[in-house]
Amino acid sequence: MERRDFLKSATAAGIASAIAANAQTGSQTSRASNAPIKRPESPDMIYRELGTTGERVSAIGMGGYHLGKQADANESISLIHAGIDRGITFLDNCWDYNEGISEVRMGQALRNGYREKVFLMTKMDGRTAKEYNKQLEESLGRLQTDTIDLVQFHEVIRMEDPDRIFAPGGAIEAAIAARQAGKIRYIGFTGHKDPAVHLRMLETAQKHSFHFDTVQMPINVMDAHFRSFTKEVMPVALKQGIGILAMKTFGDPYILQSNTVQPIEALHYGLTQPVSVIITGIDNMQVLDQAFEATRTFKPLDQAQVSSLLARTATAAGEGKFELFKTTNHYDGTAANPKWLG
To answer: Measured between alpha carbons, how far is residue 83 from residues 50, 62, 103 in Å?
Structure first.
């Protein structure tokens, strides 16, 4: 699709009025103008409500980072097509994944009617309105779409990130203006470092009378034992009606390397949690098959099964050494590239 012309340079007054209007109406304005889109569903996939948006999405989402790692672009495109054809409707991506290659390949894959079958999400690193708008324009071009269903603030991993995003001239102003212009439909945020940062982001949003549609965070069989997003952030998000996007199911792939849990068990644990989507990296057909096997065989774990699984991982999880996204800067792309923040 050809992208609609965007307001290249929204005036400060225009953006200010946008956030003021949002402060008065919360997320109701976006929901009133964003009627949920009905997408094809397959009996081979589980579908769930995305928070209180009214959208139904696949419980498995394809992680965009891994879709940009293949040497051959056609392999990435084939994987995306196979996932969609079998029932996956939630696609994850980010402006900075593989220097934009992930978005380019996804955009190529979504031609010829595939775009209408999916709920498309990507993420922006920019903390200022100027940088957010620049990145959003690039993402729209790469993804070959005029509207992205969900755009999330990426890597909210520092205590000052909420302040920067919600400051005058901050990225929240650009996100609201983009939503009003029809460039994006829903707004969320992500992070993987510490639940305290997520809680501060939610508190800051409330102070500005802003309601996030989604929040993305680590939810896995080790998280319950160390800086637990599951215990600390999930209850707050559920109370606020925010759609929860789970990530780091396998710890990419260190949790599996701990030899305490099998892939299907890890996926079943995630699916048992009150999450809308588990976003998982799929870089080959075998991993795609594994995800569908997990949904085919899924029955919610009972409390005894959950307790048994967590007991098995407790010792290994205690110091976070298999959740490197929490304890090291190995996954902190914006720390290595501060210019992305603006």
So the answer is: 19, 8, 16
Please list, in sequence order, all residues whose beta carbon lies within 8 angstroms of the beta carbon of residue 244, skipping any fewer than 6 positions away. Answer: 51, 214, 215, 216, 217, 219, 234, 237, 238, 273, 274, 275, 276
Count CB atoms within 10 A of the CB of residue 287: 15
Residue 108 has pLDDT above 80, yes or no: yes
User: Which residue reads 């948006």 in tokens?
Assistant: 53
Q: Are strands 47-49 and 119-124 parallel, antiparallel or unpaired?
A: unpaired
Q: How many residues does the chain have?
A: 342
| Distance (Å, whole) CA 65 – CA 63 | 6
Confidence grade of residue 11 (pLDDT, cut at 50, 70, 90): very low
pLDDT tens-digit profile of 269-281? 999 999 999 999 9
Other C-beta atoms lying within 10 Å of the C-beta of residue 46: 17
pLDDT of amino acid 314: 97
Strand 56-58 with 47-49, pairing? antiparallel
Instruction: Band the pLDDT of 33: cuts 50, 70, 90.
Output: low
Q: Beta strands 60-63 and 56-58: pairing type?
A: unpaired
Distance CA(297)–CA(311), nearest Å, equals 23
Q: How far is CA 204 from CA 19, 131, 211, in A?
A: 14, 21, 10
In this prediction the pTM is: 0.90
* CA gap 331, 322 in Å, rounded: 13
* Residues 336, 331: Cα–Cα separation, whole Å: 9
Residue that has been written with the tokens 């774990």 in this structure: 301
Cis check: omega of the bond before 263, within 30 degrees of 0: no
Return the amino acid letter for 32: A
